[in-house]
Amino acid sequence: MDDTVSKVDTKLLELLVCPLTKGRLSYDREKNELISEKARLAYPIRDGIPIMLTSEARRIED
Q: Which residues face 26 on adjacent strands?
């Protein structure tokens, strides 16, 4: 595993939902982000901590 990718607790990932849509999130291991398909947002994970702020999220473009 790449050292730049922080480890995230899988149980925590199961509990988290998108703060905007309350929908499920998927984990993108390559980009180290939590993806909300409904909101088209990618929430970053920094030092193993998901940053669940829409202001910090990256917009997903087609």
A: 35
- For 17, 25, 41, 47, 53, the CA distances from 21, given in Å and listed in that order, are 8, 10, 10, 25, 12
Low-confidence spans in the chain with pLDDT less than 70: 1-6
pLDDT tens per residue across span 49-59 = 999 999 999 99
Nearest residue to 38 (alpha-carbon basis) of 56, 52, 19: 19
What is the identity of the amino acid at 21?
T
CA distance 51 to 44: 6
Largest Cα separation within the chain, whole Å, is: 32
